[in-house]
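To illustrate the input format used throughout this study, we show a single complete record. The first block contains the structure-token representation of the backbone; no residue identities are included at this stage. The design step must infer an amino acid for every position from geometry alone.
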């Protein structure tokens, strides 16, 4: 379970950053950034945070709402950034992910001096010092919270895109290459949200 040991190494404001949506064939990539400002957050929230992939959708959504509530109380700051399908195709997914992370940082209402970033790759020219943490979403409270923010926010985006492009099951698969998604591609071809630089999509161009 995550704790604050990574954050506690620094005597300054620390943000956790994680992304959702690197693997899907469609839609934007989204980054979440979360700063715990005072450790006055609810015990239920702190005891429930974990890697978003280990939580049910219902639990993630509940924690997302709790994080928003704590932000309203002034206990934490949340930033969300995204990079579009066009940016993913123009830059590549890694650089687009870094762009989304920078935007998430810029959308915070505070300016942390250190970013804990999930994974092992450091974005170039990041606005503050960085430390990468492999599987950080299961180790650091801030990164765990950021993983939930990114995942829930992106899932909501994909549900909205499903209404616009109903043939691919985006509301169920969030753009990943499921059977339903492939069936839609075979029958209807691609939509404007498909990542045309991705190999599985190129055969439908």
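Output of the design step:
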């Amino acid at each position: 379970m995550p704790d604050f040991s990574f954050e506690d190494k620094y005597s300054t404001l620390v943000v956790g950053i994680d992304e959702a949506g690197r693997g899907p064939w469609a839609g934007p990539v989204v980054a979440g950034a979360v700063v715990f400002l005072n450790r006055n957050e609810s015990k239920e929230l702190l005891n429930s945070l974990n890697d978003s992939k280990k939580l049910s959708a219902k639990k993630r959504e509940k924690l997302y709402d709790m994080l928003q509530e704590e932000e309203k109380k002034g206990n934490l700051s949340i930033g969300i950034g995204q990079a579009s399908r066009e940016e993913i195709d123009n830059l590549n997914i890694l650089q687009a992910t870094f762009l989304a992370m920078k935007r998430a940082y810029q959308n915070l209402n505070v300016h942390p001096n250190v970013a804990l970033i999930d994974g092992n790759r450091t974005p170039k020219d990041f606005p503050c010092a960085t430390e990468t943490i492999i599987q950080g979403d299961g180790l650091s409270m801030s990164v765990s919270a950021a993983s939930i923010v990114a995942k829930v926010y992106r899932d909501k985006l994909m549900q909205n895109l499903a209404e616009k492009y109903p043939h691919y099951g985006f509301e169920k698969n969030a753009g990943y290459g499921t059977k339903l998604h492939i069936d839609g591609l075979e029958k209807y071809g691609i939509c404007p949200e498909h990542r045309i630089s991705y190999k599985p999509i190129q055969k439908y161009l």
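Structural context for interpreting the output: Helices lie at 43-48, 57-72, 85-91, 93-106, 141-164, 170-173, 179-188, 199-202. The longest strand covers residues 29-36.
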